[in-house]
Write a structure and sequence with these properties.
The complex is a heterodimer.
Chain A: E1 3-14, E2 17-29, E3 34-38, H1 45-50, E4 60-69, E5 72-73, H2 79-85, E6 90-93, H3 97-100, H4 107-117, H5 123-136, H6 153-164, E7 171-175, H7 183-200, E8 203-207, H8 211-217, E9 220-225, E10 228-234, H9 235-240, H10 245-252, E11 300-304, E12 307-310, H11 317-324
Chain B: E1 6-16, H1 21-26, E2 31-42, E3 47-52, H2 58-65, E4 73-78, E5 81-82, H3 88-97, E6 98-101, H4 105-108, H5 115-125, H6 130-143, H7 150-153, H8 162-174, E7 180-184, H9 192-209, E8 212-216, H10 220-226, E9 229-234, E10 237-243, H11 244-249, H12 254-262, H13 302-306, E11 312-315, E12 318-320
Parallel strand pairs in B: 3-8, 3-9, 6-7, 7-8
Antiparallel strand pairs in B: 1-2, 1-4, 4-5, 9-10, 10-12, 11-12
Helix pairs in contact in B: 5-8, 6-8, 8-9
Classes of the chains: A alpha/beta, B alpha/beta.
Protein name (chain B): ABC transporter ATP-binding protein
GO molecular function, one term (chain B): ATP binding
Subcellular location (chain B): Cell inner membrane
Chain lengths: ~325, ~325
């Protein structure tokens, strides 16, 4: 296993108190796999994956848990040790690609900076490598001389992916890399990831809120809800046989282009405040299948090989899935 | 067929863009043609989707339709009247009958106004008698499935979720009982779990209010859920127009084909076939000669560089702007 995240807990110190943004998260990233992290806005996706780089806001606190990269715990490393791994082993493409690139420097210059400063390359070798990187993500070498604002949104995304790949890391963490793009450009960027994964045996963690994107590129998926992982496993298993009601609900909320014209059902209500999360299952108030047992923390239930759902009723998932497919199941659920 | 509610003829918008040093030196005033020569009609009660790549001019077109910005050339007729030549009273009436739903619910509402005040303001501006306000607001709130309860109406935007906010934004557009709305990416900022609720409201409004609507999105799956008819734009121009079902099942223009193929579906067994087109949107300041899509088109021929393809009827209520599509 390339990366193992175990029982990770991360708090933010805020004026209102401590916000537990990530609360006991577990997931694995096998070498050469694309792992999708999905969930509602504010559920802790960015916090959980950024923790892997340790580049966090000063208000963030690693409260518990471990992040093991090839046997070494990142959480326990000194800053100096950690710096050795950044770019070389782990690279991060932030949520807005605008932030990845400095607007005042030419894009090529920024890539060279990393190659020379971090990678110890000569200027000449760095220039050749920059061209190679741009070719890899499908950009013309002459565009290295452009400033970020001269790029379209899709080109900027590709350039920030090229930057992340500069020192041939084993793992690229891309936070919502296609959210702001239209479908044609989105497809091109996603295909770039798949190609690189095949060519370079790269592992990718891809954060998104779109399960279609997950279905398109990912091998594994981690579904988060209110700071916790509610379900994870191989993509086909999770999407075809969801074990957690939240995953079932997500599926019904998606219009499908080619499919029949079924009525969509929203998941009513909103996620709990992470400052004061309810005890027990956090999805309870929005769940059509909630029972008294849900006042207790949900157990981890194994559904299939590597496929886990954290739900008291995961054993009945087969029946619940059928009920969840009906629109009326989701009407008027919210209880709190 | 009904008399159209909206007729758009030769609608064009050019923006001045910043001048380079050389432009200043040579007295050049570069312009960008964001919308080029767009024609279409919209019947009362019809819902029209507008799809296309980012930057292709969808928002600019939508803003011209409700006179938020003026056209450089061409005109928009609303109920038989040119919207640029309206008297003050006609204009006031137009402002009531045509409404815009903004993309981002988080900054569409004044953060210092209660929800009630945000909903009352348009009624006030349209000089709706005060004694009708309560009932109008209750009606609009029920259309978007929000409780018209006192405590809800007295809350401020930051106290509501994204989905609730977007419903309020929609209610604010509906409170004047418009005949026409333009919704510019009304769900793109919302979480998937709440998005479905807004899409359902838009569908209901379409079916029950007989409202004509233009729904702008780059997601064809959303458009299909809400609109009977769809227009595809590419670099400012309409390249395809027809019933949404027909376009999704059998797109005719090569760009629409790529667009349909590129939409991912929430299932693992989907096509990973490479898209027929490559590259990104060309520079709107220097569009290619002839067909604007030709430099990305897998089928382009010499003719495509020489001649601008006109939007032509091809049967089945469809129009396509491509030299290579034969009329049925
Ligand atoms: N610097 C911070 N200080 C305090 N709270 C924070 C900070 N950053 C994030 N949070 C809170 O932590 C929670 C998780 O935030 P995070 O950005 O990880 O979510 P996310 O799943 O990436 O959301 P999105 O889909 O909107 O990007 C949220 O409730 C957020 O408000
Ligand atoms: N006020 C303006 N001044 C100059 N150029 C503009 C202005 N508004 C828009 N443009 C340009 O006009 C073109 C069309 O923009 P528009 O916002 O209409 O596109 P869009 O299809 O809505 O894109 P998106 O999907 O990204 O919202 C773009 O090239 C844009 O840069
Ligand atoms: Mg995030
Ligand atoms: Mg727009």
């Amino acid at each position: 296993m390339l990366l193992e995240v175990r029982d990770l807990v991360i708090d933010y110190r805020a004026t209102r108190g401590r916000v537990r943004a990530v609360d006991g998260v577990n997931f694995n990233v096998p070498a050469g796999a694309v792992v999708g992290v999905v969930g509602e806005s504010g559920c802790g996706k960015t916090t959980a994956v950024r923790a892997i780089t340790r580049v966090m806001p000063s208000s963030a606190v690693f409260a518990e848990g471990s992040i093991t990269l090839e046997g070494e715990d990142i959480v326990q490393m000194s800053d100096r040790e950690m710096r050795k791994h950044l770019w070389r082993d782990i690279a991060y493409v932030p949520q807005s690609a605008m932030n990845a690139l400095d607007p005042v420097w030419r894009v090529g210059k920024q890539i060279e900076e990393v190659l020379v400063g971090r990678g110890g390359m000569t200027k000449k070798a760095a220039r050749a490598r920059s061209e190679e990187l741009f070719a890899m993500v499908g950009l013309e070498a002459k565009r290295l001389r452009d400033y970020p604002h001269q790029f379209s949104g899709g080109m900027r995304q590709r350039a920030s992916i090229a930057l992340a790949l500069a020192l041939s890391p084993k793992l690229v963490i891309a936070d919502e890399p296609v959210t702001a793009l239209d479908v044609v450009i989105q497809r091109q960027v996603l295909d770039t990831f798949t190609e690189l994964q095949k060519q370079l045996n790269l592992s990718v963690i891809l954060v998104t809120h779109d399960i279609s994107v997950v279905a398109y590129v990912c091998d594994y998926v981690v579904v988060m809800y209110a700071g916790k992982v509610v379900e994870s496993g191989p993509v086909a298993d999770v999407l075809d046989n969801p074990g957690h009601p939240y995953t079932m609900g997500l599926y019904n909320a998606f219009p499908e282009l080619g499919g029949e014209d079924r009525e969509l059902s929203p998941i009513e209500g909103s996620p709990p405040d992470l400052l004061n999360p309810p005890k027990g299952c956090r999805f309870r108030a929005r769940c059509p299948f909630a029972i008294d047992a849900c006042l207790q923390d949900p157990p981890e239930h194994t559904i299939g090989e590597g496929h886990v759902a954290n739900c008291h009723r995961a054993g009945e998932a087969g029946e619940l899935r059928e009920i969840a497919k009906r629109t009326e199941t989701w009407v008027g659920v919210t209880s709190e | 067929m009904n008399q159209p509610l909206i007729t758009v003829e030769g609608l064009t918008k050019r923006f001045d863009v910043s001048r380079s040093f050389k432009d200043v030196f040579t007295g050049n005033h570069p312009q960008l043609q964001a919308v080029s020569d767009v024609d279409f009609t919209l019947a009362p009660g019809e819902t029209l989707g507008i799809v296309g790549e980012s930057g292709c001019g969808k928002t600019t077109l939508g803003r011209m339709l409700i006179k938020l910005i003026s056209a450089t050339e061409g005109k928009v007729m609303f109920d038989g009247k040119d919207i640029s030549e309206m008297t003050r009273t006609e204009e006031l009436e137009f402002r009531r009958r045509a409404q815009l739903v903004f993309q981002n619910p988080f900054d569409a509402l004044n953060p210092h106004f209660t929800i009630l005040r945000s909903l009352t303001e348009p009624l006030h501006n349209a000089r709706v008698p005060r004694e009708e306000h309560g009932q109008r607001i209750a009606e609009a709130m029920s259309m978007v499935h929000l409780p018209a309860l006192e405590h809800f109406l007295q809350s401020f935007p930051h106290q509501l979720s994204g989905g609730q906010l977007q419903r309020v934004v929609l209610a604010r557009a509906l409170v004047l009982r418009p005949d026409f709305i333009v919704a510019d990416e009304p769900v793109s900022m919302l979480d998937v779990s709440v998005r479905a609720g807004i899409l359902n409201v838009l569908r209901e409004v379409r079916d029950t209010m007989g409202l004509a609507a233009v729904f702008i999105s780059h997601d064809l799956a959303l458009v299909r859920y809400v609109c009977e008819r769809t227009i595809t734009m590419y670099l400012g121009a309409v390249v395809e127009d027809g019933p949404t079902a027909a376009i999704v099942e059998n797109p005719l223009h090569p760009y629409t084909k790529a667009l349909v193929q590129a939409v991912p579906i929430p299932r693992v067994d989907q096509s990973h076939a490479p898209l027929p087109i490559t590259g990104g949107l060309p520079d709107a300041r220097n569009p290619p000669s002839g067909c604007r899509f030709r430099d990305r088109c897998p089928l382009a021929e010499a003719r495509c560089a020489a001649e601008i393809p006109r939007l032509r009827e091809v049967g089945g209520g469809r129009r396509v702007a491509c030299h290579l599509v034969e009329p049925a």
